[in-house]
Give the backbone structure.
Amino acid sequence: IPRGRALGMVMRLPERDNYSYHRDKMHANLAVAMGGRVAEEIIFGHDKVSSGASGDIQYATDLARNMVTKWGMSDKLGPLQYEQSQESYLGMGQTARTMGGAETNKLIDAEIKALVENGLDRAREVLTSQEDKLHLLAQAMLEYETLTGDEINQLLKDGKLDRPDESKGKPTVKPITGAAVPKSGKKFGGGPAPQGA
């Protein structure tokens, strides 16, 4: 439930210190980044998608751009670096300079778009085939507001969550039921509805 400027946030802790990632992990990260957008489409419909996933879309676009222009992960462009960072006037900030002509830039844009759209398609495939778990997680988020990775795994495995009852110090087992969108039509967040709603 949003309390600050972000509507929601996923924080991933690294399993270990990594300085490089494999291509398959990057493709998985693209799908994860697009998951929020796809979840909105599934729950609210295409016309009610909000701007809430803007940070995730920016992350996915930046990752795809790096895959194509810095890390040589485009089969069409080959293992070349097309973008170089430059320091600007007096070392204040950096700008990126793309190496290549107009045709190369068009191909770079097409490759970035294809990577992000593949992540979107993969997220859609997973979430539509597991829609019951999407609703289960959404209901748990409404009830508990914060979930750890272990709690998410337990919820997906058992369909319920064992959390200590803070008033008694004993674990309580609560089955999570119901839809993620209240039937009463009550809107959460208290802010204005997106334009066109």
